Each structure stands twice: as C-alpha cells, then as structure tokens.
Amino acid sequence: MLNKQQINRCLDEMENMFPDAHCELRHENPFELVIAVLLSAQCTDALVNKVTESLFKKYKTPHDYLDVSLEELQQDIRSIGLYRNKAKNIQKLCELLLSDYHGEVPEEHEELVKLPGVGRKTANVVVSVAFGVPALAVDTHVERVSKRLGICRWKDSVLEVEKTLMRKIPKEKWSDTHHRLIFFGRYHCKAQSPQCDVCPLLDICREGQKRMKKKSS
Predict the structure, then answer these.
(1) pTM of the entire predicted model
(2) Spatial contact of 97 and 104, defined as CB atoms under 8 Å apart
(3) Which of 38, 87, 124, 172 supports an S-S bond with 137, CB 3.0-4.6 Å?
C-alpha cells in the first residue's frame, strides 16, 4: 500500500498529466446530467454523448419524457446498452421528480439515491459536478487505478475503495481527484493496454513493475 507521501505524488503527477480533467458527459443542467450518468452505466461517455445530442433536443423536462410511450423512448436510446431498463428508469425517475421534488433534481446525496436508476456513484457525480459538493465517485477507471497503484487493496469492494480514497485524500481535492483518476485510467492506465513503459509512477507501482518484468521475460 502506498504511504501518504507516495499518494500525494500520484495526485501531483496526475494533475501534471491531466490539469483540465473534467466530466466528459455533455449536459447543460443537473437534470441532463442525471440522465446522462444514468445512461452511461456499462457504456462509454462518447456513445452517451452521441445519443444525448439528439435526446436533449427532444426532451427538455421530466414532463417531456413522460409525454411519450416507453417504446418511443426506448427507440431513442436503443444504441445504448441496457436501453430497455434505462428507459424505464428514466420515466420512473421523472415521475418521482415531479411528484416529490417539484420537477427539480435534489441537491442532497441521500435524496438523489432514492431516484430510480441512481446509485451511489451517480449521486456522487451529480452532487460534485452539478452542485459543487466534494465527492469521489468510483467507476471502473477509479477502482482500477486505485488498486493498481496500491492506494487501495485488490480485495476492496467499490464502497471500500470510495471510503479509502475519502480517508486518504483531502476533502477539498476529492472532486478534482475523481476526474483525474478517470482520465488517468481512460487515457493512460488503460484496462487492456496500460502505458507502463512511459508512466511517471512506475517506480512506485508494483503492478506496473510486474507487467514490465513479464513483458521483458
């Protein structure tokens, strides 16, 4: 496991590599962000952005999503994985927003997770990106990078990874670190082809050292 000094070095290196890391899901308001993050489950942000480009022109409010049939909404997001369930959750989410929240996306994490299709990760993204509340959403990239580097243990659950990161990283850095971990995992420490040979953290990354040793043998 990395010590505090090594973790700080990781954060500094990621900031140098990706100073402008940000949420790549295109949106103009909290409601669009909730829909985009819901659609992004087991799907790339790039594909979601292609779909929402037309989706967000057609649907502006929760009412709009409920004014069409479920079948029509499914067709609108058909190119996205799990589109049937996601369409159902979108309409259920819109119903709840209208009945319980005056059609507005709630700012509180505990209220967000009550929305259909919105789990802990999605709620963390929304409170951080839409409302500026420090949060550390753990997606596949964040989990992979945290475990490869040794910030967290391989056996840790997603929730344990989140709690460990929150404990080891200053609160004021949570949101920026979330985005930089994603960029680091998406563009550098990739799932299939991590760029270990040019990684500035190779000397403290046991996983990377194992890969390089195996590659040279």
Answers:
(1) 0.92
(2) yes
(3) 124
Going by pLDDT thresholds of 50, 70 and 90, the confidence category of residue 155 is very high
Active-site annotation, residues: 121, 139
| Residue 73: closest CA among 99, 101, 96, 54 | 54
Domain positions in the chain are 4-21+137-216, 30-129
pLDDT tens column, 108-143: 999 999 999 999 999 999 999 999 999 999 999 999
Q: Which CATH number fits domain 30-129: 3.40.50.150, 1.10.340.30, 1.20.810.10, 1.10.472.10?
A: 1.10.340.30
Residues 98-110 pLDDT 10s: 999 999 999 999 9
The values of phi and psi at residue 162, to 5°, are -60, -45
